[in-house]
Amino acid sequence: MENEGNLLQSSLESGGSSEETVRNGSLNGEEVKSIDESSVKEENASITEERNENIERNESDLASVSVENAGNGTENVPEEKSVEIIPSDAESSVENSVDASAKSLESSIESENQSNQTQNSESETQNTSETHSESGKEEEIVEELEKSLENLEISTIFEHFLVVGIDNSVVFPKEKAGEAKKLPFFNSVFDGKILYQFPKDKPLKTVKVESFCFPSGVKTNRIRRTASLNSLNEIYFNQNYMYDPNHSFVFSLINDHQSYYGICITKDELVSENPTFFETQQEEITNGGRNDYCMVAPRCYCFISKHPFFKTHFEVLHSILDHDRLSRIIEKQHLGNQVESSMVQEGLVLQTLEKYYSLSIPSPGSEIKFLLPGDSKQAKKVGYPLDDPEASLLAQWTIVPTLKALSIDQLIFLFNAILLEKPVVVKCRKSLGTLANVVLSCIPLLRPMDWTGLLISVLPNSLIDVLQAPVPYIVGVGSLGADVESLIVDLDNFKLINCDPAMPLLPELKKLTHNVRQDYEKVHTSAEYFNSVLTPSASIRESAGSVLETLQKYTTWLLAKVKGAFVAKAQANPSLDFSATRIREEVCTEFVNSVSPANRKFMEMFLGTQHFSVYASKHFNDAQAL
Q1: Which residues pair with 255 in a beta bridge?
Q2: Within 10 Å of residue 569's Cβ, how many Cβ atoms?
């Protein structure tokens, strides 16, 4: 403490001396200024005194001449003599210098004017000759700016709202004149088409989105019209879609290296009737003059978004469906005069879409609250996590249903497989929602690394050949028509298929399973129901988060072991260039040879994965930073 006090005192004294030096410096500057001014005054006084002496001397000589002439009796008036005041040498040099400078400046200005005239003349000639090329360059610049503006996109909370399904134009193709229209057979399957799109004029970048909304196609059904209209009323007014997890799901797409998510709710509707917010309605089709049956098929209401705000997207979808349902009730029950105007407004769905589309994306670490047209006083909200937003948002939505769908051994085995970049097929016919959640949960499970292979949460039947591709993938399917050699996580039958006995198991597997078990059991055995409306309680979310955190820390522990080998190598040879892939591979090989034989095969396969290679190129490429 005494040394610190002396050091502080010394610092303060030093600071004072510095300040004094600055102050003295400024004082010295003023002294210099005053000396210069006094010397100038003395010099001017000397010049003036010298000039006066010369004048007096000339006048004295003149007076003496006059006196002499007078003494001689000469009365001639002396000739008039001009008196020239001769300046001192200093004054003469100053005046000469000023004159010379003025002449030099005039000469310089004149030559510069001549030069400018010459340059202007040459420039005019050059501009005349280059007018065409300059205008061509300007046109190129304008074209580039226009292209840049075309490519510039303002990020919105969703890209598109779509209604996908079938209508009369799909079910009843154009037939010959006079031919009666026949209803298709029971359980016919059609390809879906986009029936409604918002915004209308914005190009849809995601391809085959209809196939992802209906991976197995649109299946039709027929219901008989009865006097009680019970079957029709069930179609019009039921809300089963709100609570059945098979009616809500998420699919993922990648287009131009950009991830898109489809947030979907499906519900059965009459094929011949459009939703109430469509601009036009369809003509009713009769079966040869009779109208005994109605055709029913599911329609998919879908947001396409770059942002996995799943909870908020589903809430807005439910608001849209509620508005449409209320309008349908008023229309079918002829309640127009009995319903308050505040409960139903014309164009309410469109107003909702416009409002939601106009929302700003919250900045990382913040959230925004908003009210939609027709909403109650309870505001909706959307938040953006600060750290790793995509994985965090995916984890919030997918980890709880994944832990409920898998046993602890299946969870650990799936984790093992994706760490080693094994191709995985997740199969579930019963619930597209559960299927998609298990596949998407693999993204946060792999953190802090990124899955670099193919990932499709719900694969359309038309793209089933993807499973034969010789690349790493995690794909969700409703059914499998052909045998595949990949690991199959069968959620329908609660089992794993094609478990590779040669796949090395995780180091410290028993300890990891023990660390996860308690929180896993709390989530897995919970009686809470989870779907697009009901979200897990805070305690269940906390336990699921602990499971995820334990698995992520395990991966971080593996990477830290490898990092230690890079640090040791950098200390032994600081000149090594770890940005070179060959050097990193050599370090990894040395590390693999140094681990125990029981874990050597796993570490060799782990360090050979593409996602480890990408991670190493980002975090182990600088010897100085390790």
Answers
A1: 258
A2: 21
Element (H, E) at 248: strand 248-255
End-to-end CA distance of the chain: give it in Å, rounded.
35
DSSP 309: -
Residue at token pair 């599911």? 298
Query: Is beta strand 189-190 parallel, antiparallel or unpaired with respect to 218-219?
Result: antiparallel
Q: What is the amino acid identity at position 306?
A: K
Strands (E) located in 429-472: 454-456
Cβ-contact 422, 472 below 8 angstroms: yes
Mapped onto helix, strand or coil, the DSSP state of residue 105 is helix
Q: 459, exposed or middle or buried, with CB in 10 Å at 0-12, 13-18, 19+?
A: buried
Please work out, in degrees rounded to the nearest 5, the angle formed at the alpha carbon of residue 518 by the alpha carbons of 515 and 523.
Answer: 125
Give dist(CA 43, CA 88) in Å, integer.
11
The residue written with tokens 């970049």 in the block is 421
| Average pLDDT score, the chain | 77
Q: What is the spatial distance between Cα 417 and Cα 450, in angstroms, rounded to a whole number? A: 14
433-436 contacts, C-beta under 8 A, 24 or more apart: 433/245, 433/246, 433/247, 433/248, 433/249, 433/250, 433/401, 433/531, 433/532, 434/245, 434/401, 434/405, 434/491, 435/249, 435/476, 435/477, 435/478, 435/491, 436/249, 436/250, 436/251, 436/252, 436/476
- CA-based radius of gyration for the chain: 44
Helix (H/G/I), strand (E/B), else coil: 193: strand
Q: Sign of the CA dihedral 340, 346, 349, 350?
A: negative
- 8 A C-beta contact, residue 556 and residue 448: yes
Q: Strand runs (DSSP E) across 37-145, as ranges?
A: none
Residue 344 contacts residue 398 (beta carbons within 8 Å): no
Closest residue by Cα to residue 552 from 399, 366, 384, 383:
399
Q: Is the pLDDT reported for residue 584 higher than 50?
A: yes
Q: Which of 192, 212, 205, 250 is nearest to 459 (CA)?
A: 212
Total residues found in the chain within this entry: 626
- Of 439, 444, 451, residue with least CA distance to 477: 439
Alpha-helical segments (H) within 72-177 = 89-151, 168-171
Cα dist from 211 to 198, 219, 465, whole Å: 19, 13, 15
pLDDT value of residue 483: 82
Q: With bands split at pLDDT 50, 70 and 90, how would you rate the model's confidence at 418?
A: very high
Which runs of E-coded beta strand occur in 148-247? Answer: 160-165, 189-190, 193-198, 218-219, 221-224
Q: How far apart are CA 168 and CA 283, in angstroms?
A: 8
* Average pLDDT estimate for 111-137: 52
Both structure tokens of 119:
């340059």
CB 217 within 8 A of CB 298: no
**427 exposure class (CB count in 10 Å sphere: 0-12, 13-18, 19+):** buried
The strand pairing partners of 455, in sequence order, are: 474
Please give the Cα distance from 197 to 6 (Å, whole number): 77
Contact 588, 620 (CB under 8 A): no
Burial 30-39 (b: 16+ CB within 10 A, else e): eeeeeeeeee
Matching residue, tokens 């793209």: 463
Within 10 angstroms of residue 473's Cβ, the number of other Cβ atoms is 20
Q: Three-state SS for 165?
A: strand
Tokens 């001549």, residue located: 114
Sign of CA dihedral 366, 369, 372, 376: positive
Q: What pLDDT shows up at residue 244?
A: 78
Residue 548, pLDDT score: 97
Partners of 497 in beta bridges: 488
Task: Say how far apart CA 162 and CA 206 lie, in whole Å.
Answer: 12
- The answer to whether residue 65 scores a pLDDT higher than 80 is no
| 564-582 mean pLDDT | 89
pTM greater than 0.90 (yes/no)? no
